[in-house]
Amino acid sequence: MAISKKQYLLEGLCCGNCAAKIQNDIRLLNGIKNAEVNADTGILLLELDTDIETLVNDITNIAVSHDEDIVVKEI
Fold first, then answer.
1. Domain annotation for the chain: domains and CATH numbers
2. Of 44, 39, 41, nearest to 60 (Cα)?
3. pLDDT of 13-70, one tens digit each?
4. What's the order of all strands across the beta sheet hosting 32-37?
5. CA distance 43 to 11
6. CB atoms inside a 10 Å sphere around CB 75
7. Sequence-distant (≥ 6) Cβ neighbours of residue 65 within 8 angstroms
């Protein structure tokens, strides 16, 4: 499968520490080639080689595990 790019808003993300932890955990998921979280904007940039639908729940669970107020929205 070709590498595709997706963007998500981590609404409610409030600190750089959480952003770094979320980024590192998402990078460990199978199918993720790269993940970058901008702590200032809350934007998550993904490069993946799998269907995003298989990862959305995992990404949401990771984000919420670091800050229960985060809502993940596709942009």
1. 4-74 (3.30.70.100)
2. 44
3. 999 999 999 999 999 999 999 999 999 999 999 999 988 888 999 999 999 999 999 9
4. 32-37, 43-48, 4-11, 71-74
5. 8
6. 8
7. 25
